[in-house]
Amino acid sequence: MKNITKLLYLSLLLLPAGLFAQDGVTFEKYTLGEGVTMKSNSDSYSLNLRGFVQTQSDTRFYEGGDDNSLSRFRIRRARLRLSGDAFRKKVSYVLSADFSESLAGEEEANSILKDAYIRYNPTSNWSVTFGQRSLGTDSREMLIGSNSLAFVDRSKVSSAFSTIREVGLFVEGTVRVGNNSFLRPSLIITDGDGSFTTGKRTGGLKYGGRINYLPFGRFREFGEFRGADLVRELTPKLSVGAAFSYNNATSDRRGGRTTGSIMYLDIDEQPALPSYSKLVADFLFKYKGLSVLGEFAKTWAGVPDDIHYRVRNDGTYATTFEGGVEDYVKGRMMLGSGYNIEASYLFPALYLVGARYTHLRPDKNSYMHNTLYNNRRNFYEISAAKYLTRSHAIKVQASFIYVDARDGSRNLLNRDMENKNEMMFQTLLQVSF
Question: Does the predicted model carry a pTM greater than 0.85?
Answer without folding.
Answer: yes
